[in-house]
Design brief:
By secondary structure, the protein is of the alpha/beta class. The protein folds into two domains: 165 residues, D-Maltodextrin-Binding Protein, domain 2 (3-Layer(aba) Sandwich), CATH 3.40.190; 115 residues, 3-Layer(aba) Sandwich (D-Maltodextrin-Binding Protein, domain 2), CATH 3.40.190.10. It is 35% helix and 16% strand. Strand 6, helix 7 and strand 7 form a beta-alpha-beta unit.
Length: 373
């Protein structure tokens, strides 16, 4: 019996290494990796896992691509970008789990919100149309940031703008910044808003440099967010370590889904990855809440889900959705084939069998809000 309250199946027999190096970016949805380490789940599955933080998604991508790390928490569209060699080194990766759903917030500066004169919740992008037009006419277009060119943040932000007739490639200026740099960039006026994973939107509100105008669940409820990915070549040589790590992650996600465990989860995040962020700010995302503006009471995010063991199954349909978005915005060749083999539900099922968890029900996905995000 594991200390999490369910029986532990004997770990797979490793034919080679039993140590793994795994990268992550300090975010709330890195919690499955951090909890798996803190609760001894990697060790229970026969692994010595070394977790290493990355300052940016591009740095994380490169370290996995060159083999410096065995695997990592990754943005959902990132394995596709690596497959096509977009923006950096080409590498084939194997996605063995989905790490989280939703978890992003869209934050705008106080100044931009004052210009549009609208504090509706959630804010419709149409409220920005006259403001963005005036900014363009004055030669000072609004600057909005995402954390990586090939990210859910970028594609959800683009969809939100485009649904109101705003061309994200011409009517605003889109830039890329590391997640932890976004609140300071908003404070000093470098950007006018951003879409990022928590806790950085809530941290901007905590610092009173902006306001949260919607959560990503209000664009696409239950959308896939981060994934756990490994070098496909290394996994082909010996899948056992990656399978054991995936089993530990599934078990950690099941633990995170229990409300009684959230206080300890918040403490783990604060001690390991988010020491500069106050615990109440970290707590918001884990409780599916935001504080929209400094001094407001917490607001629940309808349709939000962050951690669910059943939702960790990697679905090749997610790859199809992200590829459609990448093609819509000219980020991937229009004739690129859907590389379904990158998403490996077969490996997830093998890993899930190692956890000792009861049979996990199928997670019912909400379809994207339109054919192409």
């Amino acid at each position: 019996m594991s200390d999490l309250g369910f029986p532990l199946v004997a770990p797979a027999v490793h034919t080679g290494r039993t140590d793994l190096s795994l990268g992550y970016v300090p975010l709330t949805d890195a919690a499955p990796l951090l909890v798996a380490a803190a609760k001894g789940l990697f060790a229970q599955h026969g692994l010595t896992a070394v977790l290493a933080p990355a300052g940016s998604w591009s740095a994380l991508r490169d370290r996995v691509a060159v083999g410096a790390w065995d695997g990592a928490q990754m943005l959902g569209p990132m394995p596709l970008a690596c497959h096509f060699g977009l923006g950096g080194l080409a590498a084939d990766l194997a996605v063995t789990a989905t790490l989280g759903r939703n978890g992003n917030t869209l934050v705008l500066s106080h100044r931009l919100i004052a210009e549009c004169g609208n504090r509706d919740w959630p804010l419709a992008a149409a409220a920005l149309v006259p403001v963005l037009a005036a900014r363009q006419a004055a030669g000072r277009p609004a600057v909005l940031a995402a954390v990586f060119p090939y990210s859910s943040h970028n594609y959800l932000l683009r969809h939100w703008l485009a649904a109101a007739g705003i061309d994200p490639d011409h009517d605003v200026r889109l830039v890329v910044l590391p997640p932890s740099a976004l609140p300071d960039a908003l404070a000093d006026g470098t950007i006018d808003g951003f879409c990022a994973g928590e806790p950085w939107g809530s941290r901007a509100v905590d610092l009173d440099v902006g306001q949260i105008v919607l959560g990503s669940a209000q664009i696409w409820p239950g959308h896939p967010e981060k994934v756990l990915a490994f070098s496909a070549a290394a996994l082909a040589r010996d899948p056992a370590p990656a399978l054991a790590a995936t089993a530990a992650i599934i078990a950690a996600t099941a633990w995170l889904a229990e409300p009684a465990n959230l206080p300890e989860a918040i403490d783990i995040l604060r001690r390991t990855a988010l020491s500069a962020v106050p615990a109440p700010v970290i707590a918001l995302a884990l409780h599916q809440q935001v504080i929209r503006s400094a001094g407001d009471a917490p607001t629940a995010l309808p349709g939000a889900i962050l951690h669910s063991a059943a939702a960790t199954r990697p679905d090749p349909a997610h790859a199809a959705w992200w590829l459609a978005a990448m093609q819509r915005w000219g980020h991937a060749p229009p004739d690129a084939l859907h590389p379904t083999a990158l998403w490996r539900p077969d490996l997830w099922h093998r890993a899930a069998a190692q956890t000792g968890l009861p049979s996990l029900p199928a997670f019912i996905d909400h379809p994207p809000i339109s054919r192409s995000l």
